[in-house]
Every structure is written in structure tokens, then in C-alpha cells.
Design brief:
heterodimer, A: 266 residues, alpha/beta, Rossmann fold, seven-stranded mixed β-sheet, 7 strands, 17% strand, B: 430 residues, alpha+beta, Beta-Lactamase, Phosphatase 2c, domain 1, five-stranded antiparallel β-sheet, 15 strands, 39% helix, 26% strand, rod-shaped, disordered N terminus, disordered C terminus, hydrolase activity (chain A), hydrolase (chain A), AB_hydrolase_fold (chain A), Alpha/beta hydrolase (chain A), AB_hydrolase_1 (chain A)
Chain lengths: 266, 430
């Protein structure tokens, strides 16, 4: 199988540099890293990809069974690493991707040598002594709205893309992004993401890890950032002066500084 | 107006002017501020972190909230349902950042009375003089009607999907039933006839695979076997029903009296009785015969009769082929009393009897119906394959049928009955 085509793999930056894999979370695709890439390209070999079912991945490779668990997505990461024969790469995962990276590191020892977790969350639903930010009812409501609001989620992005007359290249770029792709696949990713519980997996992390959180993040609140930091021995936690769930877009300067300083110190 | 330049305004014009002045005054009343507050859509300005800095009365009314509770205290995300919040963070906000604007996204706002109101949200980022993002301007449109319409579409889509699944299931069931029926019209395999080798092929042109041609080989008594091949008028279910009646009538008639003319006469009576008065007169053409192998000589005696059917071809071991004429036979089932012509022949080792329907001879070999394959060509083709065992001959004929492509637009049945040549070892030992 052509993994590079299946996962729409892009390799760029400095071919002699250490490999840095940028992994998008639930939402868009590798375009999310557009403001991060320039900060890394000079010194690192940067690998971008789309999970199957997102962005410009090969939709034919999608399987509801495989992607019903984060392991399926981790398998994508392992296969990308193997296809490029990456060793000791730094895995930069946004949101649920940080957890996918932890699973992938366990599945393919030696491939991933450090983690950068951007707004990670190992579990979205509150639990005894754990504040995930959402109640079971919240997530049920989300999943139900995904089921019922079929048109809203699938067709909503079309006007966005159509409305890009003054920047046609952007429309072209986004045309096949998650936002416009098969809502059935997005639904699977949403279900897998928001019902996941990877808290126990964090304990297995033995490599250098940087945890980045935002001051105000509805999806991954401060408590979650603290939990991840405490669960991973020796990890570093940085709270970015940023709001929302995507600091690499809303506060690219601070995010890039934190990442590059961490990479330089490895 | 142009043509009145310089004229005194008439009294009617003065009235009009008063009215338009009043309208204009009302327009002036509708200040930009008034327009903002009471616009038929919600307005919202937030800081880049989502904190609400300004909101209009329309939106506050929809929310059922006081301005003081919202401005500076809430963020845009706080107005949304959980699904909306997640959508905002995972899709809306990133795309807004990347594009600077985003339009007509379907979300739901929470109302203080517990209700949810579907809205369409558009946002644009206002940049400062140095290009840095300053604030986000958002318009919120009432999408309740649109949502109702979408749900109607969704219901329609689901109903269509259900109907499609049902139709597919029905179709599968029908195909199964058809397959069973089809087997009742054509034998799965031909029975073993001592001293005779048989082969058959059936090409159906009907999409339901309910053809109008038929054939069969079956035992009559200890020493004789019956065979027939024919063509009913028409195609599809009605033709299939006629085929079924014909097939079982011939089998039963042959058991009663194996004489070919007698069997066809019985069939004629049955079909005429069934169809002549039905308002849908139907008939068939058929060759019916018996095979009587002689174990001593290795030869097979053939007795046959035909009703309105093309004559069978005898293919001899010496490489010749000829028609076995059955002239004057009438279509079966048309008249209450019909005459059928009998013929006999003997098949020696290496000889073969070839029965066929007119699908093969009437296959088009040119652009239109003026150039058909024809009787002579078939006879020549049969002669070319003389001496071959029936399966090989049928295989060659199948290849011929395939070569017609679209030119073959009718059902075609082929039945070959041959006497095997003793193999050289057996022959030398005799």
C-alpha cells in the first residue's frame, strides 16, 4: 500500500535535520500547522500527514472498524513512520493526536523519541476526581447533534470554500479538508475522540515530553493540562497566553517559541 | 422630472413631496445605532479571545438575556450548545484564523428559557492598522425555518434510503425466485443417455433471464429417450409460463405415447385449449424426437417430428452436413387440429444431430436486418465442425454466438446429440 498517498504525507524542511512529525487533531487537517511550519523548516525535517478520513487522505482506505478506536489512528502514525523509516522522531500532536502519538510510540519502539503535546486531553468526560470539561450528557448531546445535524455539519463548510474568491488558492487548499469531506468519517473520528480515555497510557511515556496548554480552552481546560503533566514523569508544562483550542493558530509566536526551545534542548 | 423643468409644481406634486419628506424623516430617525440594535439579525463583536464586547438588542432578545450579563462577562462560546462549542473550537475558530472570515455556519444558541435556536453564523476578523487581528465581528441569522426545511430534507433522504434498501431486498428476493423458476424451464444438466453424448447451450436476451426458448432430454422407457427443442412466441413471464406448460406437456405426452407426431398433437391440443380462447393466443415451434440406441451396432435410431420449427441438421462423421427436412409442420397451438411432419434418421458413430432456434440464423451480421447469418452459413459452420464430439461443437457454436455481439438480439437454444466414435484402443481390440 502507498502510505504516502493514503495519508497525504508531506515531507519538507531540512533533510539533514531531526524528523518532526506534525499531527492534526479532530477538526481540520495538516493545514492547521501552516503557521508552525516556517519556524521548523530550517532546522528540522518536517513530516505532515492527514489521518485517513481527514483532509486529502484516501477515503477508500477508511474503515469504520479500524478507526473506531484511537489504536486505528495510531496505526496510521506507525505506518507513516515506517514508510519514511523515521527513528527517534519528535511527535507533535494536537489535541487527541497527542494521545494517538503516545499509543503509536508504544506500538513501534524507537520511532518516536519525544512528544510535544498541544492542548492534549486524555479524556474529555469528567470522572471521579478528574475534570475533563464535559459531562457524559454533553458528549451524548454532541454525538446526537452529529447524527441529527447531518446537513449542518456537512454543507456548512461549502459556503466557506465558495466564498474565497479573493484568495482562490486557499479555497483550493481547503476544498478537500475534513470540513468538506464525508461527514460519516468525521462522525467516527468525533465519537472515537470524545469517548476515548487514554489516562493510563500516559504513564508509559518515558521520553522527553512538552505539554502546551492554553489559558482558556473549552475542550482541554487547565485541569487537564495539569493532569497530563503530572501523569507523564519528567514532562514540562507550559501555559501559553492563548485562548481556544488551537494555540498554533491563535498564538503562533508563543507556540513556536515553546516548541523550538524544547526541540533545541533535546 | 426632466420634462417639467421650469414649470410650477402642481398641487398633486406638493402632496407627494409631503409624503416623501415624512418617509425621509422616518429614515433619518433610523440612525445607524438604531439599525444596529434592531436589525433583523443578531450582531456581536468579540475580542480575539472570544469575550463579548458588543451585542445588539435583537440577539439579546433571542437569547432572553440582559446586556449587563453578557457584555464583558461571557464569551461567544458560552452562548452555544455543547455541539456548537466543540464545532466552534475544532472547525470554526481555526478556519476563521486561517481565512480571516467564515460564513453561514449552522450552529445553535442556548436561550435562557432552555430553548435552542438554530442560527447561521458568519464572522470576520477586523485587523488593526499594522495588520494584527483586533476583534471578531459576527452576524447571527435566525435559521429556524431553514432548519425545519433541512430536517424535512433529511427525513426525505432517509425515507428514500429506506425505500432503496427495500427495493434492493425485493429485487434480491425476486432474483432468487426467478432463478428457481428458470431452473424449471431449462434442465440443470442433461441425463446420461447410453451410447449418446449430449451438449446444450442457452443464450438469453431477456434481462429477467426468462427466455422464450427451451430444450430437454429425458428417459421414456428402458431403451428410448425423448428430446425436444423449441421456441415459444414472445419473451418474459408470459412466454415462461407457456414454456413451462409446453415442457411438462411434452414430457407427459411422450410417456403416454412416444410417437413424435402423437406427442406434438397432444401439445397442440393442450396449448390451443389453454390459449385460443384466452384473448392472448400463444403458440410455439418445436422439434420433438426420440433416441433409440442399438448397443449391438453402436448406432442410434432417431424418430422426430416438427411443428413450424427450422429443420434439424445432421452432421456426419465424413464431414458432410445436411438438413433433415420436416416440411409442412404447423405452428403448435394455433389451430384446433394440426398436422405434423415426421422424419427419421440413423446416427452412426461420429454423427451428430444439431437442434437450434432461429436466434442463431437470424443474428445480424451487418448494420441492419438485411444481412443475417442465415441457414446456409450455419450448415457450413456445422460441416466445418463435423466429427467433433457434441461438447466441442457446442463450444464452437457458443463462440460463434459471442462473435455476433449486439447482432444477437434474440434468445438462442442449441442442443447437440452425437454418437461417440469408439476410441482407437477399443476399435483395434474389436
Amino acid at each position: 500500500m502507498d502510505i504516502a498517498r493514503r495519508n497525504n504525507v508531506t515531507v519538507t524542511g531540512n533533510p539533514q535535520g531531526r524528523a518532526v512529525v506534525l499531527a492534526h487533531g479532530f477538526g481540520c487537517d495538516q493545514n492547521m500547522w501552516r503557521l508552525t511550519l516556517p519556524a521548523l523548516a530550517e532546522d528540522y525535517r518536517v513530516v505532515l500527514f492527514d489521518y485517513v478520513g481527514s483532509g486529502r487522505s484516501d477515503a477508500a482506505a477508511f474503515s469504520e472498524d479500524r478507526y473506531a478506536s484511537l489504536t486505528g489512528y495510531a496505526q496510521d502514525v506507525v505506518e507513516v513512520c515506517e514508510a519514511l523509516d523515521l527513528r527517534d522522531a519528535v511527535f507533535v500532536g494536537h489535541s487527541v493526536s497527542a494521545m494517538i502519538g503516545v499509543l503509536a510510540a508504544g506500538m513501534a519502539p524507537g520511532r518516536i523519541g519525544a512528544h510535544v503535546m498541544v492542548a492534549p486531553s486524555p479524556r474529555y468526560i469528567d470522572d471521579d476526581g478528574y475534570h475533563g470539561g464535559f459531562s457524559t450528557e454533553d458528549i451524548d448531546e454532541l454525538l446526537a447533534s452529529l447524527e441529527s445535524n447531518y446537513l449542518g455539519w456537512s454543507a456548512a463548510m461549502a459556503p466557506v470554500i465558495m466564498g474565497n474568491g479573493d484568495r482562490p488558492e486557499l479555497g483550493e487548499e481547503l476544498k478537500n479538508s475534513f470540513c468538506a469531506t464525508d461527514p460519516d468519517m468525521a462522525r467516527v473520528f468525533a465519537r472515537t475522540t470524545f469517548l476515548s480515555d487514554s489516562r493510563d497510557d500516559l504513564k508509559s511515556v518515558r521520553v522527553s515530553t512538552l505539554v502546551l496548554e492554553c489559558t482558556q480552552d473549552v475542550i482541554a481546560p487547565r485541569e487537564v493540562g495539569a493532569f497530563v503533566h503530572q501523569a507523564i514523569p519528567g514532562s514540562t508544562l507550559i501555559t501559553l497566553e492563548a485562548t481556544g483550542h488551537c494555540p498554533h493558530l491563535s498564538a503562533p509566536g508563543a507556540t513556536n517559541k515553546a516548541i523550538t526551545e524544547f526541540l533545541a534542548a533535546l | 422630472m426632466m420634462c417639467r423643468t421650469g414649470q410650477q409644481p402642481d398641487p398633486h406634486d406638493a402632496d407627494d413631496e409631503k409624503i416623501s419628506n415624512a418617509a425621509f424623516a422616518a429614515l433619518l430617525e433610523d440612525s445607524a445605532e438604531e439599525l444596529y440594535e434592531s436589525a433583523p439579525c443578531g450582531y456581536l463583536s468579540t475580542l480575539m479571545d472570544g469575550t463579548i464586547a458588543k451585542v445588539n438588542t435583537t440577539l439579546l432578545t433571542w437569547l432572553g438575556m440582559e446586556r449587563e450579563a453578557v457584555v464583558g462577562r461571557m464569551r461567544f462560546t458560552d452562548l452555544l450548545t455543547v455541539g456548537g462549542k466543540l464545532y466552534l473550537e475544532t472547525h470554526f475558530a481555526p478556519l476563521l484564523r486561517m481565512q480571516g472570515e467564515i460564513s453561514a455556519i449552522a450552529l445553535e444558541i442556548k436561550q435562557t428559557d432552555g430553548g435552542r435556536m438554530p442560527v447561521l453564523v458568519s464572522s470576520a476578523i477586523k485587523h488593526g492598522s499594522t495588520g494584527e487581528p483586533m476583534l471578531i465581528r459576527t452576524t447571527v441569522f435566525d435559521a429556524r425555518d431553514r432548519r425545519a426545511y433541512e430536517e424535512e430534507l433529511l427525513r426525505g433522504r432517509k425515507a428514500a434510503e429506506e425505500a432503496r434498501k427495500q427495493a434492493e431486498a425485493d429485487r434480491a428476493r425476486l432474483q432468487d425466485a426467478l432463478a428457481v423458476l428458470q431452473q424449471s424451464l431449462l434442465p440443470d444438466t442433461l441425463p446420461k443417455v447410453p451410447g449418446v453424448e449430449t451438449a446444450a447451450y442457452y443464450h438469453t436476451a431477456h434481462p429477467d433471464r426468462l427466455g422464450g426458448d427451451f430444450y430437454d432430454v429425458f428417459p421414456i422407457d428402458g431403451k428410448r429417450f425423448g428430446f425436444f427443442l423449441g421456441d415459444v412466441c414472445g419473451k418474459g413471464p408470459q412466454a415462461a409460463a407457456l414454456t413451462s406448460l409446453t415442457r411438462y406437456t411434452l414430457r407427459a405426452a411422450a410417456l403416454h405415447d412416444p410417437d413424435p407426431v402423437s406427442a406434438l398433437t397432444t401439445l397442440n391440443t393442450v396449448l390451443h385449449e389453454r390459449y385460443a380462447g384466452s384473448g392472448d393466443p400463444r403458440y410455439c415451434t418445436v422439434v420433438f424426437g426420440t433416441l433409440e440406441p442399438d448397443p449391438d451396432s453402436g448406432q442410434v435410431a432417431v424418430h422426430l417430428a416438427a411443428g413450424g420449427h427450422p429443420p434439424v441438421i445432421t452432421v456426419r462423421a465424413d464431414g458432410t452436413a445436411g438438413y433433415l427436412p420436416t416440411p409442412g409442420g404447423l405452428l403448435v397451438g394455433v389451430l384446433p387440429f394440426a398436422r405434423f411432419t415426421a422424419a427419421t434418421t440413423v446416427l452412426a458413430p461420429g454423427d451428430m444431430l444439431l437442434l437450434y432456434t432461429d436466434g442463431i440464423t437470424e443474428a445480424r451480421t451487418g448494420e441492419d436486418r438485411t444481412s443475417l447469418y442465415g441457414d446456409e452459413a450455419l450448415l457450413a459452420f456445422a460441416a466445418d465442425h463435423a466429427g467433433k464430439p457434441p461438447p466441442a461443437a457446442i463450444q464452437a457454436l457458443t463462440g460463434l454466438l459471442n462473435s455476433f455481439g449486439d447482432g444477437l438480439d434474440d434468445d438462442t437454444a442449441l442442443l447437440a446429440l452425437g454418437v461417440p466414435t469408439p476410441d482407437p484402443l477399443t476399435r483395434s481390440s474389436q
